[in-house]
Design a protein that fits this description.
mainly alpha, Ferritin, 0% strand, binds fe (ii) ion
Length: 182
């Protein structure tokens, strides 16, 4: 008899606790679930390209050799440092849209449009490094433009703003890098 009474009491306490801590409401920011998914998928592909370019730029900062060492070592550092900070903004935008941000080499390798060339650093000339960075920056730009289209259709101004900023930066990097080869 006493046992039954105490169980009932405990249950009532638990129910009270549940009522005091409501679960998270559904996301309702004025963009449909379908559009949020399309935008987040696009941003994930952008992130994979941006991360692959970041890693390539850092790789070349470490491995560049030759008469241009000093200026390229410094230039690559400036670029990868800026790119690293931007990766965080993109990941957090994907989270704000309600989806998980890619964050593993396997996901990035599957999603990126930028080719990796293992072994390149063993013998690469600085010109080949710069050429690859031009191509990779331009690939990032093309993906950003695709995401801009999807974001505009979904009326997602924050993503449009973020992609516009990244476009400005990567188009500038592509120009600066290309200038070294002209
Ligand atoms: Fe360094």
């Amino acid at each position: 008899m006493a046992k039954t009474k105490s169980t009932t009491k405990a249950k009532t306490g638990k129910q009270k606790l549940a009522a005091a801590a409501p679960s998270a409401p559904n996301i309702d920011i004025g963009i449909t679930q379908g559009d949020r998914k399309k935008i987040a998928d696009g941003l994930s592909r952008f992130q994979a390209d941006a991360f692959t370019l970041y890693l390539k730029t850092h790789n070349f900062h470490w491995n560049v050799t030759g008469s241009m060492f000093n200026s390229l070592h410094t230039m690559f550092e400036t670029q990868y440092t800026e790119q690293w900070a931007a990766l965080d903004d993109v990941a957090e935008r994907i989270r704000a849209l309600g989806f998980n941000a890619p964050g593993s080499y396997r996901e990035f390798a599957a999603l990126t449009s930028i080719a990796e060339e293992p072994g390149l650093t063993d013998s690469a000339d600085w010109r080949e490094m710069v050429r690859q960075l031009v191509v990779a920056n331009e690939a990032v730009c093309r993906t950003a433009r695709e995401v801009l289209d999807v974001a505009a259709k979904g009326d997602d101004a924050p993503t449009e703003d973020l992609m516009t900023q990244r476009l400005q930066t990567h188009e500038k990097y592509a120009w600066m890098l290309r200038s070294l080869l002209q």
